[in-house]
Amino acid sequence: MSESSAHLHPIRFESESTRYRTDWNGVPLRGHYLIETRRKNNPPQGGVPVVIIPGGFDPVRGSFGDAFIQGLLDHPSVSAVYEAHYEHQGRGGYVDIDSVLHDLHLMLTDQEQRPLLVGMSLSTFTLSCALHAVVSAGQAPAVTGLVLVGPYLAGYETLLAKALEPFYRREKMRQRILKHCGHPYLFDNTDRLKAWWKGGPAFRHFLQKANFAEFAAHQHASMKLVYFRLDTLSRRGRLLFQRAFNAHLHPEVIPGHHRALRYLTEADPILLRACDAHLRAQALDRFPASLTTVSE
Fold first, then answer.
1. Which one in 99, 102, 117, 155 has a CA-CA gap of 20 to 30 Å to 201?
2. Could you name the domain of life of the organism this protein comes from (predicted)?
3. Could you tell me if residue 3 is inside a domain?
């Protein structure tokens, strides 16, 4: 655990009980640090921790909206919200893929807390990769659920998404993006991730298979997909999520194109409803007898 304020991303909710964390359940994190936010009336035990994980930009101002985080804290089933940010060996915003996957594995197999994990863009890919490793190792994922916003899979991008990368690397646009991020690692992160992917990790071989039925039979973690009206994942990629990961499509779409969520207020209630579906299901699993009695 760390109480240091030396991390890149500032604490947003000074009026709440908030602190930096560099561990998960006492195990040191390698590729992230967390900003833990809780309220006094949040259930200290038995509640569900929600971890919200940024996309590849991981901007210094945060990736998710204030109203979304506050809405989660208002939920009676939520114990705390953890804003995850990339950090490796003291470098805020630096993505080390093996370290990131190590941390996600800890969260996906936490039998005690069973967190709800919310990913955006790049982190939907790393969450899927980590989930694949857990299931392939014969382990049962121990999460309340996963919400994947603007889902992404390498090799399944739309033509528009593929065309955007060279545009982002133009010098003027590059400088604007780096200023938005507040750290210098975005494009280096992308290049290192491409090199890792080119090396042929197990998840890449899995995605290249034509039959996902065997994996799907063992993948029982509840997963919801929330898309933007104009998004970056191809039709084949969308079908793959449903076939291989038993993912369910959230009925609402976020207006506009795939972009940052921090100030996109239209997205906040949509994401809260997607999370609420998981939290309600978890409550039913925990207290089925009492709920049945009430309904009768």
1. 117
2. Bacteria
3. no
Tens of pLDDT, residues 226-278 = 999 999 999 999 999 999 999 999 999 999 999 999 999 999 999 999 999 99
Tell how strand 116-120 and strand 248-249 pair up: unpaired
Range of the domain at 74: 17-295
* Residue 4 domain-assigned (yes or no): no
User: What's the distance, CA 184 to chain centroid?
Assistant: 22
Cβ neighbourhood burial of 88 (10 Å; 0-12, 13-18, 19+): buried
Specify whether the CB–CB gap between 84 and 52 falls below 8 A: yes
Q: Is residue 10 part of a domain?
A: no
Q: With contact defined as beta carbons under 8 Å apart, do 32 and 82 qualify?
A: no
Q: Tell me the HSE value of 7 on the side-chain side, using a 13 A CA sphere.
A: 30
Indicate yes or no: pTM above 0.90: yes
Instruction: Give the number of domains in the chain.
Output: 1
Q: Which CATH number covers residue 168? A: 3.40.50.1820
* Residues 6 or more apart whose Cβ sits within 8 Å of residue 168: 174, 177
